[in-house]
Specification:
There is one protein chain. The protein is of the alpha+beta class and 258 residues long. It has helices at 3-28, 71-76, 80-108, 114-133, 141-150, 158-208; strands at 33-39, 43-49, 53-59, 63-68, 155-156, 214-221, 227-234, 240-247. It is rod-shaped, with a radius of gyration of 38 Å. α1 (3-28) packs antiparallel against α6 (158-208). β3 and β4 (63-68) form a beta hairpin. Helix content is 55%, strand content 21%. The chain has 2 domains: 3-200, Butyryl-CoA Dehydrogenase, subunit A, domain 3; 214-247. The protein has a 5-stranded antiparallel β-sheet with strand order 4-3-2-1-5. A 3-stranded antiparallel β-sheet has the order 6-7-8, with no helix packed on it. The chain crosses the membrane at residues 12-34, 86-109, 116-140, 152-177.
Length: 258
Amino acid sequence: MGCGHKCARISLAIFTVFGTLLSLVAAFSCDFVIKIEYTYWYGHTWNGLGFLGRSKHGFEGSSDFCVGWSSEEKEYLLDGYWNAGFAFALLAFSLGMLTMIGSFLFCCLGNVTNKIYCSLVIIYVFTAMFQGLTFVSFASDVYDTLESWEGLNYHVGVGAGCAILATIVWLLCAILAGRSKIQNEIEEQAEEQVQHYNNEPIIAKAVFASEEPIVNETVTVREDGTRVIERLTMFPDGSQETTTIEEKPVENSAESPV
């Protein structure tokens, strides 16, 4: 395995780790979106919404905490779009974990078939697609309901930002996996050519080591009766010699009567 192929595998493993960590934050952070507000009593504070619950930052001094959704909030606030976004986030994180484990295994393996690389490309593309579909949660009525209650708009938070970055990283992983596949094919072709080049003289020597020169003759007769003999001589060292001989017919002279 060449340096280019090995570097591509290592880069793929590193990008997969970053993508998995970003997907983790996007799925389980309580700050998928945030709402910044300023109060004179507590200073600068903000609230966050995540798939697992709501967060509060800056309240009671500098305390930060996350509170899970209550049963009433799950029943009246969380709709199908919100749950679908959470499901896609979990799928992206799960596939990211599998690809991260697989990418480290590939770094330890010697030869990997092109079918495995094609499978990796497909998995990375699906992971990026699932990560991008996380944003269907923006169509949820949760934001409109809370904004009408609290009077402030929610913006992209840490979780949504990580989801955007994770989508980009998974697409880069798909490109790197495709690049690794191409590099693998190039190295396999180069190894086959080198092996063929190294084995060809050895085979020739084994065949001709204990044999006399081999002579093959081909005889062709033309319309005028000329015989063309082509002689191909193969010597023990692998060299060849071709000789062509033409034999014209002998003309018989007829005697004139006296």
